[in-house]
Amino acid sequence: MMRFSIILFAIFFFFNSTFAKSEISGKVSDSTLAETIIGASVTLKDAKTNEVISGTITDFNGNFVFEIAPGNYNLEIKSLGFEDKNYTDLNLEEGKLIQIRALLSAKQKNQLNEVVITATRKQETINSIYTMQKNARSVSDGISADIIKRSPDKNTGEVLKRLSGTTIQDNKFVIVRGLSDRYNAALVDNSPMPSTEPNKKAFSFDIIPSSLIDNIIITKSATPDLPGDFSGGLIHIQTKEIPDENFNTISIGAGINTVSTFNAFQSGKRGSLDFLGFADAKRQLPKNFPTQTEIMKLNPYKPESSTPYLKELNNNFSIREHTALPSISLQGTLGRVYNLNGNAQFGITGALNYNHDEHIKKDLLRQYDNYDYRDNVYNYSSNLGMLLNLGYRNNHGKINLKTFYNRILNDQLLNREGENYSSSSRIKYYAFDLVQKSLFKTSLNAEHKLGKGNAVLDWVASYNLITNNQPDQRKVSYSEMIGGNNDYAADITTLGKSNNRLFGNLNESIWNGALNIQKPISLFHETTIKAGFFGQYRIRDFENRYIGATLSPNNTDAEFIRQLPVGSLFDDNILNQNVYILEEQTGDLDNYHAEVSTLGGYAMMDNKITDKLRAVWGARLESYHVSIASKEKEIVDQQYLDILPSLNLTYSLSDKANLRAAYFRSIARPELRELTNVSYYDYELSATMNGNPNLKRTQIDNIDLRYEFFPRSGEVISFSLFYKQFHNAIENFVYGANSSYDITPSNSLSAMNMGAEFEIRKNLSFISANGFFKNTSAYINMAYIYSKADADNLYIRGEKINSRPLSGQAPYVFNTGLSYFSNDGKLNLNVLYNRIGQRLTFIGQDKMGIIYESPRNLLDFQISYKVSKRSEFRLNIKDILNDPVRFYFDQNNDMQYNGTAFINGNIEEGKDWIWQTYRPGSSFSLSYSYQF
Hints:
This protein has 932 residues and is mainly β. Strand 21 and strand 22 form a beta hairpin. The protein starts with a helix and ends with a strand.
């Protein structure tokens, strides 16, 4: 069904049955409150004679439209209580659309004479996002579609790097103010987004193409109408509802990586549709495969009874080698807008997106405790995405249906060699791991004007479906005694964590609904009241099944078979000799069913107490219930009732400067897997990942102070102070003995962080009004954070640890960049630099030490050039410095990396252990886009 839908969408995308119309349209808003103005008078005039050609008034959403022949026009906008605004010499071409975003300023009370302001369309568009930020209810940062369009960023993950205090991990996971995924949340088109990862709370922001974004706002202090489960930032992405104009765009790109591309790439057997993101169904566990009870009845001394079942599985363990190909990026987008009777509009926005990459983590080093390993990890990845938005609006309201689907296939092969000194052996280890993930999201939202007043009712209903499928994770370990003569033997005499086959499935459905109403009332200078109700219901089913083949105890050729290469170990020639027995290792806790319900409501008031002082305050009530059971045995049944108050104060020092203060309470809940008794073996980390049914949710008290100044269009200077107190912070602890490691989440009693944040975005024309500096902008944003968490009963190598940083918290974040645009708008240059400070990843005990992630310097360069109005080339160079990725055990607790303790097979005191380190390589990509 999904493949059929994609084919239909592709046909729809490339079939262009409509003709573009020439029109001038726009939206009129209040520059102070950033709210739409209903009933504003809009007059269209001839640019030469200034004669009136047509006139209209703005609708319920502040929109207007003129379908008109090509030519030069002037536009005049008037509204009672606001200063008039004129736009001159608008050059409308055949089949094109001119979009105006008009911001009207309120007349002063003592103003007698008429004031007419003349502005350019380009300046107004850029200024709109900063006007929104300046007049927002809370502390926030944003970026508009116009700025995104002028940047070379391909997806939302790349765009987010440009926002203050924000960094991105793996080009998709967001970090705000140094706080990791757990403390951030995402809204897409007013609908809460689920986690795209099965084992942690994290949304993959790379799935939304940047060309479909209208704006992005990161809220850093909560108001009652926003979800309460964030502390770092709430990332709100608004995709395009009705496009500004009809368009079709196709983009094609290719890239290389200095470590991966054109180097030897290893993998298991490929499926015919792997390149599209759809794994071969033959890799799944056969439907008629025997149950666990049936396998338990098999006679280990009669392997012939197991052979038929084993032959039903994919037993191709051969390793193929080819040259890693360049990455591929394909994207197609379309937009259609139809003007209907009664000043109504209907619009369609759609996209198809495809990416493919073959990446190598080469010579990844692991040197800790009794391990001295060197890994080569080969990842074959395909990503297919689709987006379709439908929108309708008229004078009385609007309604939108927004849908997207994203599918990712990651097929990974790990090849490991090294020494395990605890068993005095050298090892060779192979892991074949295919994971298919998908996210389907659809939402219906609407906004309605009630009666003759200014009351507005809006609602949203959405559905999300998440799947995560591991059809056949296969692991095989070989070993020999240190000093042996290359006589490696496969460890297949018993079934264990390093020698089994995992078949895993996760399916989760999420329903969301919300209803909000707001209405202005007569109180103070201006007051708006807002209230609403919301609900979410989640169902997750998870199942892991572990099986494997072990040598029959009465086999006489065991040693010969054990020394076969991995590609021959389970082929038909060996299976036909009836040497293996089928075993099951699945436990009662390897599956669970979870149900989660969240219900609540809120009430808030937006008081403009005076011309300068504004207070937004209220409270949110969230009732949360989670129940998890495994094979009808209850694991978790928790219920919380949280009251989340908030207060945001804004004092306007001038029309360009604000002073803000805020307090809000928020929460962070454990992910479902963290609450279960399910344990799984992470073969890359050589560690068992556990859950903890006793985990509690985290409560966080947040305080913010901020000064912000907007010198002129597109510029901002801001300085912030913030403080956060965490109660029952959720952190991951590492426990280990004799080379056996467990990672378990637990609650720390308390933690805190405090910090300062600074941002400046400034055009450099103050250096020189002409030439290079006139067209160059610079931005710097940095944050310094001090954090401290409870270290009760924490000992490292016998020494009591009194304090430590909060897990996942970086001590500093630094972003800076330069952007240049040529006078003709054809050439765009960007240089970007990012560094995030050392972060605590896992809390180690006893001999291990705390595990930190070392800082990295990230330097990117981007250049784009418009060959014509329709076509453009873009070159990206990412991670130019290629600094190492490094996680290490801090053995002497000095919070800095002192070099590896493993030197020529000996362990040197005073040095640190390496959890993992490798260089990812620099990436070069070139793309070409064409609009028609």
